[in-house]
């Protein structure tokens, strides 16, 4: 069974840092892109960041560029999202996803088209 499990969410103050992890199991994600989306309460799920299999290509939403860094450790089947200088507007449930498509198209790709999703982890940033 293919599974993605997020961890690392929590309650922090504005300006703090947090690192999310996404552990993959059940299959090999060789040559697959992995990435992060977030969904604030009452809003749609939005693209945050994505990383290619090799890790050499990364993609970010404008709202997080310069503050968030996405990376992956394929030996551990794990992807990370380092979030720095957190703001109240970063508050959301963060989901990881995996798919064979390029991360360059993920911002515009319908969410239902992505093959594998995690269950989400809540990040709350207080101002």
Describe the structure in brief:
The chain is an all-beta fold and 127 residues long.
What does this structure look like?
The structure is a single chain. The protein is mainly beta. The strands form two sheets. Strands 2, 4, 5, 6, 9, 10 and 11 form a seven-stranded mixed β-sheet that branches. The chain has a four-stranded antiparallel β-sheet with strand order 1-3-8-7, with no helix packed on it. The chain is globular. The model has no long low-confidence stretch (mean pLDDT 95).
What does the radius of gyration come to? 13 Å
Count of DSSP helices?
0
Secondary-structure class: mainly beta
- Percent in helix: under 10%
Task: Characterize the overall form.
Answer: globular
Round the mean pLDDT to the nearest integer and report it. Answer: 95
Q: What characterizes the major β-sheet?
A: 7 strands, mixed
Helices and strands, with pairings:
Blueprint: E1 3-7, E2 10-13, E3 18-25, E4 33-39, E5 46-51, E6 58-60, E7 68-73, E8 78-83, E9 92-99, E10 116-117, E11 121-126
Parallel strand pairs: 2-11
Antiparallel strand pairs: 1-3, 3-8, 4-5, 4-9, 5-6, 7-8, 9-10, 9-11
